[in-house]
What we know:
Elements: H1 23-55, H2 69-73, H3 75-81, H4 85-110, H5 113-124, E1 134-135, H6 144-147, H7 168-180, H8 191-203, E2 211-215, H9 224-229, E3 234-239, H10 242-254, E4 260-264, E5 277-283, H11 293-304, E6 305-315, H12 325-337, H13 343-347, H14 351-357, E7 365-370, H15 390-393, E8 408-414
Parallel strand pairs: 1-4, 2-3, 2-5, 3-4, 5-6
Antiparallel strand pairs: 6-8, 7-8
The chain binds S-adenosylmethionine.
Amino acid sequence: MPVPLPPDSRSLYRHGMMPEISHDESARINALASLNASVAATLSSGVRLAYEHEAAPKLTADDLNLSNPKAKTGAIVRKAIQPSPIYQSWASLRRAIQEMNRQTARHITIRQLDALRQRATALNHSESQADNTLQLNPSLEVPHYLAKADNHLQPGGYHTEIVPGDMTAAATYDIATFVTAMGMFGAKGDSGGRGMAKWLAQHYPDFKPKRILDIGSAHGNNTLPLAAAFPDAEVVALDAGAPMLRYGHARARSMGFSNVRFVQGAAEDIDESLGTFDWIQTTMVFHETSGSALPKILERIYAALNAGGLTLNLEQPNFTPETPIFDRFLRNWDAWYNNEPFWVQLHGMDFQAELQAAGFSPEQCIEGGVNPDLDPGHYPAWAGKISRHDHEHAKPKPQKKGYNGEAWYLFGARK
Ligand SMILES: C[S@@+](CC[C@H](N)C(=O)[O-])C[C@H]1O[C@@H](n2cnc3c(N)ncnc32)[C@H](O)[C@@H]1O
């Protein structure tokens, strides 16, 4: 089976905060990204066969009944498939790739941390308080679900500071997502935000937000496309992690953006002084929160939206009664082995019901899908389309009205 390869990691955009990546380091990143693609393209189908031929015959109808919590989450498959050598190879490779990926990116960052801090200090400097678009809050209590788990094996998560003025977490995340997404996030890691802006233009061509809030912006990779789509809008990038914001603010300035304010805060406690917004976006944020935080954040979003405003959220799709048990196991794998503790509960939730509980009317709720918007030629022409999740998305029929297995599941609402 031909293995589609990701683009060369040297295609990563060299913004003003991007760490220097040596030849050897680029080679290592390329090897990890290609290995990740190869595991996704070849071994994954072997895991499915191992389930069908080795594990499933050992399971009873009761085991597979969705009223059984272990069937609902796919945990029953995990237990049954563990003895399979092909599953073991697939799982240990995925885990090892992630560990090596985070370690490689972190090493690149730490060896030049002093230089990066100097660059950030210069770029983040503002002549006056009025020009200051980086607002950190050292007394912020980082939500426990971020503080207690190193999500997707990123050491120290998004908030840990190993030296004063640290930005290791952000630079590590900026580089490491290339391997995780096998280049699908594009040269600037912004294909989600670009795709989102395109979707908005297609579905709400008259919508012209004046104030935009991106919650869980990280280093602003997917915030800047929103700011670029609406250059007259005032954009606020909110995140709990100071390292993400320091780096993101400097990065945005180095790229010529002046309409984005980077603010440290927790989404469940959006500071009223930030005002209200026409568009509130989250991109890949909710899956790292918790069962009690998610409804609270949606309530805060509802309160902070202007009448007629939109909230759009890119996330993992919920399971439906039609989601096969094997797919449930695959989709929850990251909860068990990639430190994504909330995934199991998140997949079992119903976002449409959560939106309505937060105050949105059912007629105004939105469900759809967004595809990444990549620069033409980002993938080599011969490589074809790849995604670690392709096998999950290849559904004969749409799972739910509005979502057809696009790369990102979208849920949202108009107020
Ligand atoms: C997986 S990253 C996604 C980043 C970015 N939106 C993107 O598209 O790549 C999740 C980000 O959300 C932030 N985050 C998670 N929960 C948060 C909360 N309750 N308040 C503020 N930020 C939060 C984390 O600090 C992290 O930077």
